[in-house]
Design brief:
Mean pLDDT: 87
Number of helices: 12
Oligomer: single chain
CATH architecture: Alpha-Beta Barrel
Strand content: 5-15%
Distance between the termini: 22 Å
Helix content: 25-40%
């Protein structure tokens, strides 16, 4: 189990999301799973798909906090996790993307950060422990929604404190690692890592969203991210969400080249969003995502999943490609306007810190 540092007691981490009215608990066992041990198997790990897509299908209303479903509708959250596990996911992300006080304050929930995040992790833990194979529960930690000084009013210290509070809840609920995701600012990633490490000793992964001409909203390229993130000693780094599959692929190839000894994550959207009437659909079919997965596996990317618009049928197809049960479809790779930098053979050598 991850040790919580200077936080609320984790003595009840074997409990499920919430206690049922009749007094029985959701899930009674905890079986912590190591990401590094799973990676040592040298088989690509499949991450789950979108949480929001599934919750909207179950009745979530735009503008309402999905994180409250961990407390109000835990069975629905567990059902989403189980659906992705059944589809073949090796890693599931908790329903805690907006779980910092900064984000929860928008719904007057800033005083319930620990409770909400603990419940989110317990939901994931309950689903994982019901599986007959090891499932990694990753505690999702999304951006604060604030800008750091001098562009905004958030300081590195206040950011770190907010992420520390979230991390304590996720650790107490039984997360196997912390998963900082959809970041635009390297400084915010660094603050989140500082906060997380002050709260518990769980390993940390971090991904950024490359959604603006192959860069993040704050102008970070995949190469920039590799240089900075590779010095943080993270369990894995990568890209998620973003503008399109092509730019996500280009970004992770830059990350792979810049940080060759660090496991790389890609969790791209299922194509491009399009409105059909009043409903939002994504253009990426299971075959498109299967071809994307094959390209990433061939490039040596170790951790692959899907973000917005990715559902269980996408993941099941991707699982089939990994297992060899489905022949990868011959779909041409999309063209990115953000190609990887020159290979090391033609580029100047960069001194790298040895990883322990």
């Amino acid at each position: 189990m991850g040790r919580i540092v200077d936080g609320p007691s984790a003595s009840n981490r074997n409990l499920g999301c919430q206690e049922r009215p009749n007094g029985s608990d959701i899930g009674q066992t905890v079986s912590m799973v190591s990401l590094s041990e799973r990676l040592a198997e040298h088989i690509p790990l499949l991450v789950d798909g979108a949480m929001g897509t599934e919750l909207f299908a179950r009745g979530l209303t735009a503008g309402d906090p999905p994180e409250m479903w961990n407390l109000d509708s835990p069975d629905d959250i567990i059902d989403v996790h189980k659906g992705y596990i059944k589809a073949g996911s090796d890693i599931i992300l908790t329903n805690s993307f907006g779980g910092t006080a900064f984000r929860l304050k928008l719904h007057k929930l800033q005083d319930r950060v620990f409770e909400i995040n603990k419940a989110a992790a317990q939901c994931g833990r309950s689903a994982a422990d019901s599986s007959d194979r090891p499932i990694v529960v990753a505690g999702s930690m999304g951006p604060s929604g604030e800008l750091l000084e001098p562009m905004g009013t958030m300081t590195p210290q206040s950011a770190a404190a907010a992420f520390a509070e979230q991390a304590r809840g996720l650790a107490a609920g039984g997360a196997d690692l912390l998963w900082i995701e959809t970041m635009s600012s390297l400084e915010e990633v660094e603050a989140a890592v500082v906060g997380a490490r002050s709260a518990c000793d769980l390993p940390i992964a971090a991904t950024m969203s490359f959604d603006t001409a192959g860069h993040t909203m704050m102008g970070v390229s995949g190469h920039d991210a590799a240089v900075r993130l590779d010095n943080l000693g993270l369990a894995a780094i990568g890209a998620n969400c973003g503008n399109n599959i092509a730019d996500s692929e280009a970004a992770v190839l830059q990350l792979k080249q810049g940080a060759p000894s660090t496991p790389i994550i890609v969790k791209a959207n299922a194509g491009i969003p399009e409105f059909k009437g009043d409903k939002l659909h994504y253009t990426g079919s299971p075959e498109v995502m299967g071809a994307h997965l094959k390209r990433m596996v061939d490039a040596g990317i170790e951790i692959i999943g899907g973000c917005c618009g990715t559902a269980t049928h996408h993941l099941a197809y991707m699982r089939g490609v990994i297992d060899g049960a489905i022949e990868p479809p011959m779909i041409e790779a999309p063209i990115s306007h953000n190609p990887p930098p020159p290979t090391e053979r033609s580029a100047p050598a960069r001194r790298r810190r040895r990883r322990s």
